[in-house]
Amino acid sequence: MKRLAVLTVLLAVGAVSISLAQQQQQQRPPAALEIQKVKDNLYMITGGGGNTAAFVTDKGVVVVDTKLPGLGPSILEKIKSVTDKPVTMVINTHTHGDHVGSNNAFTGNVEFIAQENCKAGMEKMPAFQSEEGKKFLPGKTYKDKLSVLSGKDKIDLYYFGRGHTGGDSFVVFPALRVMHAGDMFAFSKGLPIIDISNGGSGLEYPKSLMKAAAGIKGVDSVIPGHSAVTNWAEFKEYGDFMQEFVAAVEQAKKAGKTVDQAAADLKLPEKYKDYNLSRGKAAVAALYGELK
User: Fold this and answer.
1) pLDDT tens across 205-234, in order?
2) Which CATH number does 28-234 carry?
3) Domain map of the chain by residue range?
4) What Cα–Cα distance (Å) separates residue 137 from each residue in 61, 95, 107, 171, 283?
């Protein structure tokens, strides 16, 4: 009886703890978003997932990436703080939920655009499988390059191959000499996530970055997927960094090292000493999977 009483108390305490945890989760305030000016008519909205770009054109606002689910109203609120124009276009750089999660907040006469492989990935996501959800899938896709709008409002979209996923877009605003790189360049000084299940490739990653660096002209400033605005030189250096990383992992594999050994022994040139290698083991594992 005594044991039963103790068990009953423990179960009751556990139930209360779970209830309180659920209430705290429900009461947790939404992610705080911040908006900053990048160039004339171009803004970056941070917080709540990937960096969102808001480009104010003559016809309306073009949004690049929509963050985590539920943050659409907050994104729209930030946009309204700089313009009265409606959102007329949403570009998704890739399929991950922290970049496409709030597509459903952009209703009305809004055009959704993405690279064709990105759309294929989005179609597998539960949020886009209902009849209502399908309305927020990209209605326009492209294979290698697409230009939309014209003049000072022109936007160029490029796809140079697999990397973070299998359908990552680079979004360029030529008149402003700015590029949104999505998560192909998520953190300007750190290893990326390589999402093999969504078509990503560690082996192809540096090749795709270098193709982008060679194929895109006239860019000075770069909006990464998650970190602060940086410059073209750092973007180009990131391609070199990834090439050095892949070469080091390939050498470790040839030497018969395990994933753990390769990650622990990882040595890159001194110029990359400030790079964050905390994702080293996961990135090495992804590459080892491709090198079989």
Assistant:
1) 999 999 999 999 999 999 999 999 999 999
2) 3.60.15.10
3) 28-234
4) 18, 10, 12, 18, 30
